[in-house]
C-alpha cells in the first residue's frame, strides 16, 4: 500500500460494539499497538457501558480484542505526556479517563466476561480483572507490568489482584515482577478457565446464554453479588437480608403452578 492509498480512507474505529440477542460485545480494535487503550478508546468504553447500563434487554457483556494480544495497557504516548508533569490537571485527567473506564466495566449491572488471548499487561490486566469472569488460553500471559516500567501500579491494580488471588500472589506479581500463564491463572482462580483459543468463543456463548435469556433476573443477581461480595464483602446475616426480598420477587414472578414436578420449572 502506498501513502496515497490511505487518502480519504475512513479512520479505523478503535472500539467496536455489538448488541445482539441480549449480549453486549465490546472489542478493542487497536491491534497495531497491541490494543493499548487511548483516551478515545476510554471514552468509547464509557459509551458502551452507558448503553449496557440503560438497556434492560441486555443480560451479559463480553470484552474482547482484535489481533493476537488482548491489551498491552494504557497507551505509552499518554503515559509519556503525563510523566512530564504527573500532578497537572491534564495528567490527572488522562489517567482518570483510562482507569474510570475500568471502573465502569467492573460496575456493570450484568455479568461481564473478558476474553483474554495473548497478553494482558498493566492497565490491560486491570481491564481483564474488572470483568466478572476471565477466560484465557493456556498460553495467555498475565503480567502486572507496572514494575517493568519502573512505575507504581495504578487503577486499583493491587485491590483487583488481591480480591482474585490473595496477598502472596499479588505481591509476587505486582512487587516482584512475576507473570502468570493462562494455565496458572486458571489453576489459582484468577481465570475461570483456560482453553485453546478455538474453544474460547463456544465457552463464552455457554456462559452468556442463560443471563441473556433472562436479563432482569441476571441484573438482580449481579446487584446482590456486588452488594454481598464487595469489596468489602458483607457477613452471612447481611447477605441473607440482601437476598430475601429479591428471592421473593423471583418466586412471585415464577408463580405457584410452575413448581409442578411435571413442569419445566420444577
TrEMBL record:
Domain of life: Bacteria
Phylogenetic placement of the source organism: Bacteria, Bacillati, Actinomycetota, Actinomycetes, Mycobacteriales
Keyword Nucleotide-binding: no
Catalytic activity: a 4-saturated-(3S)-3-hydroxyacyl-CoA = a (3E)-enoyl-CoA + H2O; a (3S)-3-hydroxyacyl-CoA = a (2E)-enoyl-CoA + H2O
Sequence similarity: Belongs to the enoyl-CoA hydratase/isomerase family.
Keywords of the record: Fatty acid metabolism, Lipid metabolism
Classification via InterPro entries: ClpP/crotonase-like_dom_sf, Enoyl-CoA_hyd/isom_CS, Enoyl-CoA_hydra/iso
Record's function text: Could possibly oxidize fatty acids using specific components.
Name of the molecule in the record: Enoyl-CoA hydratase-related protein
Pfam family, one: ECH_1
Amino acid at each position: 500500500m502506498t501513502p496515497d492509498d490511505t487518502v480519504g480512507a475512513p479512520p479505523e474505529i478503535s472500539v467496536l460494539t455489538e448488541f445482539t440477542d441480549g449480549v453486549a460485545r465490546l472489542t478493542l480494535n487497536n491491534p497495531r499497538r497491541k490494543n493499548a487503550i487511548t483516551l478515545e478508546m476510554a471514552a468509547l468504553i464509557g459509551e458502551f457501558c452507558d448503553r449496557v447500563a440503560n438497556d434492560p434487554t441486555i443480560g451479559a457483556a463480553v470484552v474482547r480484542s482484535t489481533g493476537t494480544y488482548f491489551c498491552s495497557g494504557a497507551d505509552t504516548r499518554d503515559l509519556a505526556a503525563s510523566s512530564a508533569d504527573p500532578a497537572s490537571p491534564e495528567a490527572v485527567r488522562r489517567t482518570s479517563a483510562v482507569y474510570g473506564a475500568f471502573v465502569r466495566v467492573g460496575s456493570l449491572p450484568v455479568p461481564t466476561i473478558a476474553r483474554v488471548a495473548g497478553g494482558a499487561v498493566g492497565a490491560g490486566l486491570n481491564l481483564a480483572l474488572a470483568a466478572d469472569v476471565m477466560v484465557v488460553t493456556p498460553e495467555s500471559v498475565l503480567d502486572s507490568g507496572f514494575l517493568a516500567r519502573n512505575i507504581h501500579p495504578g487503577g486499583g491494580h493491587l485491590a483487583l489482584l488481591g480480591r482474585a488471588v490473595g496477598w502472596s500472589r499479588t505481591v509476587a506479581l505486582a512487587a516482584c515482577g512475576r507473570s502468570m500463564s493462562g494455565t496458572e491463572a486458571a489453576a489459582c482462580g484468577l481465570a475461570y478457565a483456560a482453553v485453546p483459543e478455538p474453544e474460547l468463543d463456544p465457552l463464552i456463548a455457554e456462559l452468556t446464554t442463560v443471563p441473556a435469556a433472562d436479563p432482569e433476573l441476571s441484573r438482580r443477581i449481579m446487584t446482590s453479588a456486588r452488594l454481598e461480595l464487595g469489596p468489602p464483602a458483607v457477613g452471612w446475616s447481611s447477605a441473607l437480608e440482601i437476598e430475601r426480598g429479591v428471592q421473593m420477587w423471583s418466586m412471585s414472578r415464577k408463580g405457584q403452578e410452575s413448581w409442578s414436578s411435571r413442569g419445566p420449572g420444577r
